[in-house]
Write a structure and sequence with these properties.
Length: about 200
């Protein structure tokens, strides 16, 4: 009986030595929203369309930034340009349309901040600032709508929200100073630190 068990034991040992079959997994990055075709959707002609929009922005003549009517017409022209190309409007595109400024300048205008060390900028009239703010907040609303409707890549959308509109995802910790349990009166404190006779001062 003992001899008949030996072949079975040998068989089990041989099976244990065989490499176990692993379940075939997706390649690394297969579920990533950035890696692979999940991160972009480039079709023939997309590069040309994007380049043509940027060329149109570059060729826009300068407007009088003190004139609210000219500024509003330029903002409408800017939105119409992107709508005609069936493209999502951008913050930088709006800044360029307003006489070739940067997004940092646009942020300063829309948040009542100083433009910083980029040179001198004449203060804009209140009506002009309000028109620019309205258009900027329309962009923010459009971004938020895209995010809620799943019309933009989540990773790209989060990046744009943080960099263009100041959104943050953070945990705040409030640290309060430790309260002293013992409250001493002024007289008690004076007595605690009073030098008695016979003590020497160094």
């Amino acid at each position: 009986m003992a001899e008949s068990k030996k072949p079975n034991e040998a068989k089990k040992l041989n099976e244990a030595k065989k490499p176990s079959e692993r379940k075939k997994m997706k390649p690394r990055g297969g579920n990533s929203p950035v890696i692979g075709m999940n991160g972009y959707d480039l079709k023939p002609g997309d590069n040309t369309k994007i380049l043509q929009v940027n060329m149109a922005l570059m060729q826009m003549p300068a407007i009088d930034m003190q004139n609210v009517e000219e500024v509003e017409n330029r903002l409408i022209e800017y939105f119409a340009l992107y709508a005609q190309a069936d493209m999502k409007p951008t913050v930088v595109g709006m800044a360029i349309a307003l006489n070739g400024h940067s997004r940092q300048w646009l942020w300063a205008v829309t948040h009542d901040a100083s433009p910083g060390g980029n040179g001198y900028f004449a203060p804009l009239p209140t009506l002009v600032v309000n028109s620019i703010k309205k258009a900027y907040f329309m962009l923010e609303n459009q971004w938020e709508t895209y995010m809620n409707s799943g019309k933009v890549n989540p990773v790209a959308g989060i990046f744009l929200g943080k960099n263009n509109y100041g959104y943050q995802d953070k945990t705040e910790h409030v640290i309060a100073p430790k309260q002293q349990a013992d409250d001493y009166s002024a007289e008690e404190i004076r007595k605690r630190y009073q030098i008695t006779e016979g003590d020497s001062e160094d």
